[in-house]
Amino acid sequence: MFRHFSAGYVEEVLGRGAAVVFQNGGRELGKEAGQMLYKPSTDEYLKEVVQFVRDSRIGILIPRQLDDKLLVVDLDECITCAGMASISKRICHFEVGFVAGITEVLIKKKPKAYETKCGANGEGTCQVTVELG
Ligand SMILES: [Zn+2]
User: Distance between CA 104 and CA 12 in Å, rounded?
Assistant: First the structure.
């Protein structure tokens, strides 16, 4: 049900503000999960996060890049848009917020995050890019 009653629909009904609401909700959850899963080793922390994301059925998180500047993760089977026909928009604001929240625990400041690929935009997977620097 959540899958079909999510960002795209709500955004259409409520306007742009809904995107912010979803992103903030995701960020709060990401921070809470991050504090719960925290490990001093970044690799181990990311492994815990991947497991958490799978267990809570948010999707299948695949870290693609991590360096001083950027964290890039793919999200397959994304809870928001998996199975959705392409609507030519990137809509996974909740997931962007979640990854930002997870990252905030890691770097101890609020990062900039955005969706760089989205299944709903016909790109085959969702991808979130976080600026660390
Ligand atoms: Zn998406």
Answer: 29
